[in-house]
Design a protein that fits this description.
With about 200 residues, this protein is mainly α. It has 2 domains: about 55 residues, Homeodomain-like (Arc Repressor Mutant, subunit A, Orthogonal Bundle); about 130 residues. It is about 70% helix and about 0% strand. It has 12 helices and no strands. Helix 2 crosses helix 3, helix 3 packs across helix 4 and helix 9 packs across helix 10. The longest helix is centred in the middle third of the chain and has 22 residues. Keywords: DNA-binding. GO terms for molecular function: DNA-binding transcription factor activity; transcription cis-regulatory region binding. It holds the Pfam family TetR_N. This is TetR family transcriptional regulator. It comes from Herbihabitans rhizosphaerae.
Length: about 200
């Protein structure tokens, strides 16, 4: 049974219990990677540089994160926890208390901002194999959240597919193209999202 079938929200960054030294190494690596990212952008995120900055062996970084993409996903996970709390328990319309359709719109609007603010890092994360990109990190719980809201508005439709379809336009590669190459502003993208939500929900909105 999947988490979605069991009704359990997958918490970002959740993993099996680790040894204390493994936890310390993970924290050191992520702190070092965050410093390098802040100082020089994603170009600084080579696993060799991160290992040196964290004062751990390169093999330790490779074992924990596999590659640069895995490290990017882990960095995004660390930043995602605050967002998860916002839509789980924060004020409406992003958090509980607003109609489901309003929460869907607020959620997608917030995702535009999050992706825009982390374009380069998200672009690296999106280069992962599909099983990793869509099965780990932020995507599963974002999808689960949308599925939950859609079930309240259009329960007779394929909400699993619709949730994926609503998330698809918010890929970093597409948003970067729209904003940087086409000159779209964020408000026009949000307006398009609102139209997409209205078409998707129909009478359920």
């Amino acid at each position: 049974m999947t988490r979605s079938q069991a009704g359990e929200l997958p918490v970002v960054g959740q993993r099996p219990a680790e040894r204390a030294d493994a936890v310390r190494n993970r924290r050191k690596i992520l702190r070092a990677a965050a410093r390098l990212l802040a100082d020089g952008g994603v170009e600084r995120l080579s696993l060799d540089d991160v290992a040196a900055a964290a004062e751990v062996g390169v093999g330790t970084v490779y074992r924990r994160f596999r590659d640069r993409t895995g490290l990017a996903i882990a960095l995004l996970d660390e930043r995602e926890k605050e967002f998860q709390q916002a839509f789980m328990s924060g004020p409406p319309p992003l958090g509980p208390g607003a109609p489901p359709a309003d929460r869907v719109r607020a959620f997608l609007h917030a995702l535009v901002d999050r992706v825009r603010d982390q374009f380069e890092l998200v672009l690296v994360a999106e280069s992962a194999e599909p099983a990793i990109r869509y099965g780990e990190g932020a995507y599963p719980f974002r999808h689960f959240h949308l599925v939950t809201l859609l079930r309240e508005t259009v329960p007779d439709r394929d909400v699993d597919y619709l949730a994926a379809a609503l998330l698809a336009p918010l890929s970093a590669s597409l948003l970067a193209h729209q904003i940087r190459d086409q000159g779209r502003d964020v408000e026009s993208i949000r307006s398009g999202i609102d139209d997409l939500v209205e078409l998707t929900l129909g009478g359920g909105s």
